[in-house]
Design goal:
single chain, mainly alpha, 6 helices
């Protein structure tokens, strides 16, 4: 009886403690950084034999930038959408078998997407320009996917993808005030 009462008190206290913690909605800097580190450590430097495949793909930096006067909601949503687009790219089964940490990378990207879904339901302010940012992102990722398709998902094509995603994650880490 005493043990049962103690159990109920513990459950109630845990519930009160958990429900009293404010839930923040946002991408976690440490997970974005971990994703970047895992992707960076998957393979060595960009292979010399792949240089001919390394076509310039214009990076959409404006999709992630914020200013002091503008709200960061559009940029935060763009970063979230980027993780979803990365997840889609890496759902491909034809990735290089020599890459290390691939599954860990995919798990962390998926975890960030699942834990940050609330970003997309944040109220859109009149100044928010996420739709335009999203079009820019989709165009960028379509170009990356085209490299994979044209190069028949070769190891060199995947190295180009890895290089582009590394740059994207690094840019998000360096230019975002919305990461928590």
């Amino acid at each position: 009886m005493v043990l049962q009462s103690f159990t109920w008190v513990t459950i109630i206290l845990c519930f009160v403690d958990v429900s009293a913690v404010p839930i923040t909605c946002g991408l976690q800097r440490r997970l974005v950084d971990k994703s970047h580190c895992l992707l960076e450590s998957m393979s060595g430097r960009f292979p010399m034999e792949c240089l001919e495949h390394n076509l310039p793909i214009a990076f959409p930096s404006a999709a992630f930038q914020t200013s002091e006067t503008a709200e960061s909601g559009g940029a935060e949503k763009a970063a979230y959408e980027t993780l979803k687009l990365i997840d889609t790219l890496f759902a491909n089964d034809s990735m290089p078998t020599s890459w290390n940490n691939l599954e860990d990378f995919q798990d962390i990207i998926y975890r960030q997407i699942e834990e940050s879904k609330c970003i997309m339901s944040k109220t859109q302010s009149p100044q928010e320009d996420f739709p335009a940012r999203n079009v820019t992102l989709k165009t960028y990722f379509d170009k990356i996917a085209t490299v994979l398709k044209e190069k028949e998902s070769s190891d060199c094509a995947w190295e180009v993808v890895r290089k582009e995603i590394l740059y994207t994650l690094k840019f998000i880490l360096q230019s975002s005030s919305y990461l928590i």
